[in-house]
Amino acid sequence: MPAHPMSEGELLAFLQSVPPHTALVSTVRADGRPHIAPVWYLLDTSTADGDNPLGEIVFNTGEDTVKGKTLRRDPRVAICVQDERPPHSFVTIDGVATLRDEPSELLRWASLLGGRYMGADRAEEFGRRNGVPGELLVRVTPVHIAGLADLAD
After folding, report:
1. Which end of the chain is more exposed for a tag (fewer CB within 10 A), N or C?
2. Residue 153 covered by a domain
3. Taking Cα atoms as reference points, which of 50, 59, 51, 43 lies closest to residue 11?
4. Would 44 be classed as within a structural domain?
5. Distance of alpha carbon 12 from its chain centroid, rounded?
């Protein structure tokens, strides 16, 4: 199929693909400069509704990292998830982040993220490592989502 905008179903499948892609998260520093960093992410489809059919994008970061500090000051975020392999596809998301630090939620999502990216046998290990005080759970509510598939076809 030639290059085309992704349908809602294609967006969902791409964002939940196995093996998973990493996301590049962009935030705005206090002086206006952009900051971008790779993150492991999950799609929380339990938060999907008519206005937000895909749900929220979830990742974690340290509260003292550039991401943590910039998101606390300005919750606007841009995310890009790409497949670098031919035929090349990508999804971009503009959204608004909310930050959470409840221990049970941190542990739950850090374990899920670890399982997705490192395998189920290491989920608990990564949960214990990343679901700790000083970490933040970031939940991004999309404002705009766009995806292009099969760019090289």
Report:
1. N
2. no
3. 43
4. yes
5. 13
Element (H, E) at 110: helix 103-118
- Domain holding 83: CATH number? 2.30.110.10
Domain that holds residue 36: 4-148
**What angle (nearest 5°) sits at the alpha carbon of residue 25, between those of residues 23 and 28?**
175
CA distance 5 to 89: 10
Please state the domain count of the chain.
1
Q: Name residue, tokens 């990216």.
A: 117
> Would residue 11 count as lying in a domain?
yes
CB atoms within 10 A of CB 143: 14
Judged by DSSP in three states, 132 sits in coil
d(C-alpha 127, C-alpha 108), whole Å: 7
pLDDT digits (tens, 9 = 90+) for 12-61: 999 999 999 999 999 999 999 999 999 999 999 999 999 899 999 999 99
* 94 in a structural domain: yes
DSSP 84: -
